[in-house]
Design goal:
Distance between the termini: 24 Å
Radius of gyration: 21 Å
Largest sheet: 8 strands, mixed
Number of helices: 13
Number of strands: 18
Helix content: 25-40%
């Protein structure tokens, strides 16, 4: 496919700069101030468009195979494209769990057949994500981005150490859902003022940071590359800050909902239930400080779709998980960039540069690179309405928020993965 984007804005060293982008045979042929003189190509004029490298989300749930009533690779990757993401990494809590090459194969085949963007799956750390027997890490290694038992923390110290040693030998990262189940006591929202006032069982911050603390001790022993999923507590931020100062090979992510909400903003609605839970204002501020000083490396959505029935049971009984691929950039741009908390450059670093570098995926926005990019109108304001989502999941805590930043176009591998139709794009 060959096409030309005329005069879009690109972030440069001196602010926004006008560029024209020529794409041919899957790559960026030209990214220049001058409009290339070409004929017989499709020309796109995206008024008010701002061009970014394609975002990379290292933590999503696409639910296929096994749970396609919640989401499919086709619907999930189309939602990703609409959100500006050109590469996503789906977690292994599937059926079958990808704990061997045989069990990984159905997911790989579905990706090849139906994905709208680049998909880099995880392999499980343990068989069935049960924490007992290590998965077939060696045979999966060439086909997966890293190893994770996301949805469950590996409870046994010796099993996590064994996994780290094997992953290190394979040159792969251990990506950890950190949750000490012995500390949960049936809790399902943050163990704070809201839980106490409304009679809910609280999930204490220790359930996260205690297992992070254990894992960091194992990283010191093994030298394994290690990444912490969906960081939510101030203690975790400080532990990772200290580990980086020691020179350990560690990184971490947080998610938009932990950066925008605190537990005083909870509602008696399943769209505010996720794991780990939204925590205190002190935790939220610590996460933002971690973004600013480089402790928190990246933002991932933890896009976790469920059926309407599974999310319509209130805070106590609804399933854990919300959707986020289609709202991440506008929510972060509106709540963090426009008020001056983060720069736009920093947000691109968190959504593209850092995850791409850490996980070895994604493409830079430069001539000769694979054409993976997205275009947003940063001035377009609208209200988030899940009825418009391309994802099959509709449960979002951001429902009803007024945001800025509408995706006009996403290109993945040189192909148009999402394009806003009609007069809306200006």
């Amino acid at each position: 496919m060959q096409f030309l984007l005329k005069s879009v804005s690109v972030l440069g060293s001196s602010g926004m700069e006008r560029r024209s982008v020529l794409v041919d045979d899957g790559r960026i042929v030209s990214l220049s101030r001058e409009v290339p003189q070409v004929s017989d190509v499709r020309v796109m004029e995206l008024n008010h468009g701002c061009l970014f490298p394609g975002f990379v989300d290292v933590h999503v749930h696409l639910r296929e195979p096994g749970f396609s009533y919640k989401e499919t690779i086709a619907t999930g990757t189309k939602a990703a494209a609409r959100g500006g993401f050109t590469a996503v990494c789906p977690m292994p809590n599937l059926k079958p769990v990808p704990d061997s090459l045989e069990h990984l194969q159905p997911e790989l085949e579905a990706i090849q057949r139906t994905a709208a963007v680049h998909v880099h799956p995880y392999g499980a750390i343990t068989v069935g994500e049960k924490g007992e027997t290590l998965a077939a890490l060696e045979e999966m290694a060439p086909h997966v981005v890293a190893f994770s038992d996301d949805g469950k923390g590996v409870q046994r110290d010796e099993k996590m150490k064994e996994a780290m040693l094997r992953a290190k030998a394979l040159g792969k990262c251990i990506v950890a859902h950190c949750e000490d189940e012995s500390l949960l006591n049936g809790g399902y929202i943050h163990d704070g003022a809201y839980a106490a006032a409304h009679g809910h069982r609280g999930n204490p911050s220790e359930s996260e940071w205690k297992q992070v603390e254990r894992d960091l001790a194992l990283v010191r022993e093994t030298g394994c590359a290690y990444h912490v999923c969906h960081v939510s507590t101030k203690e975790t931020v400080e532990l990772i800050r200290q580990a980086k100062r020691e020179g350990l090979d560690v990184s971490c992510e947080t998610a938009p909902h932990y950066l925008v909400f605190n537990d005083s903003m909870l509602q008696e609605d399943g769209r505010f239930k996720m794991n780990p839970p939204i925590r205190s204002e002190e935790d939220r501020q610590a996460l933002i400080a971690g973004l600013l000083d480089g402790t928190v490396d990246m933002i991932a959505t933890d896009h976790a779709p469920h059926s309407k029935e599974e999310k319509d049971k209130g805070l106590e009984k609804s399933f854990f998980g919300i959707v986020g691929l289609e709202t991440a950039f506008p929510v972060l741009y509106t709540n963090l960039v426009k008020p001056g908390i983060l720069t736009l450059d920093k947000l691109v670093e968190l959504l593209h540069t850092n995850p791409a570098k850490r996980f070895g995926i994604g493409s830079p926005l430069e001539e000769g690179a694979v054409a993976d990019f997205t275009v947003f109108d940063l001035e377009d304001s609208y209200t988030i309405d899940p009825a418009d989502f391309l994802s099959m999941g509709k449960s979002s805590p951001f429902t009803g928020q007024q945001v800025f930043g509408r995706c006009l176009l996403t290109v993945a591998g040189g192909e148009i993965a999402w394009e806003l139709e009609g007069e809306e794009k200006g």
